[in-house]
Amino acid sequence: MSVALSINLNKIALIRNSRPGNNPNLLEYANQIVDLGCQGITVHPRPDQRHIRAADINPLKELCHLHPMVEFNIEGNPLEGALNDYPGFIPLVEAAHPDQCTLVPDASDQPTSDHGFDLHKTGSLLEPIIRNLKNQGIRVSLFMDPDLEQIRLAKEVDADRIELYTGPYAQAFSEGNHQEILSQHIAAAELANEIGLGVNAGHDLNLQNLAEYRSVPHLAEVSIGHAFTLDSLQIGLPSTMQAYLQKLA
Predict the structure, then answer these.
(1) What's the domain count of the chain?
(2) What does the pLDDT look like over 206-217, one tens digit per residue?
(3) Structural domain range at position 151
(4) 106 pLDDT higher than 90
(5) Residue 209's pLDDT is what?
(6) Which whole number is the average pLDDT over 103-109?
């Protein structure tokens, strides 16, 4: 069974925001990758709107609604409140009603996500948020390290899925010593499946390390943005999409 590929658009939005105007056009880019076969669109809006802006969400939602096989995933910190014309993360999600909401424990000033939830500390805060989103028909995934105790807690707070944080795996792969951490991800995925959690993964996955990570069992979806953007610059968008889809087949 193939693994779904969701493309994170943050880097495209970051390039757009570096100059006045609307180039590259985020919606046109999203249409291209949908036409080329991606199965999901991911965005991670932050309060400073340095990449994805609140105004980007509705057009992308409508695009995904026109393509029922393409899932819309909004990820971010559920505790981020309103700032200027950013309405706050949860109000943004509730208005957009994506197929999936991936909750991530990143601070507003972080360059990128770099750790999973510690549910001993935040589980009681997340539980009512998860319940609220699920009551609205939104699938909820939690960004998690491959820690078995934490994954059991993800089930206890009633998440639907986990997204395994693959940054340390990618770093270890580049250093040639990734087998131990890959084994941790395999064990985490096995446990998640056993207790009824779906398994996603993301962060720094690329054409070099993805094929081996594909051996993680029960993997439903990967989210890739930075590497996909870089590969597109080198070999072109159609060839990049074909290469990633082949890795995940």
Answers:
(1) 1
(2) 999 999 999 999
(3) 4-248
(4) no
(5) 98
(6) 81
Q: For residue 134, which amino acid is it?
A: K
3-state SS record for the chain: CCCEEEEECHHHHHHHHCCCCCCCCHHHHHHHHHHCCCCEEEECCCCCCCCCCHHHHHHHHHHHHHCCCCEEEEEECCCCCCECCECCHHHHHHHHCCCEEEECCCCCCCCCCCCCCCHHHHHHHHHHHHHHHHHCCCEEEEEECCCHHHHHHHHHCCCCEEEEECHHHHHHHHHCCCHHHHHHHHHHHHHHHHCCCEEEEECCCCCCCHHHHCCCCCEEEEEECHHHHHHHHHHCHHHHHHHHHHHHC
pTM above 0.70, yes or no: yes
What sign does the dihedral 141-190-226-104 (CA atoms) show? positive
The CATH number that applies at residue 195 is 3.20.20.70
> Which of the residues are catalytic?
44, 75, 203
The two tokens of residue 94 are 């509730």
In this prediction, residue 110 carries a pLDDT of 61
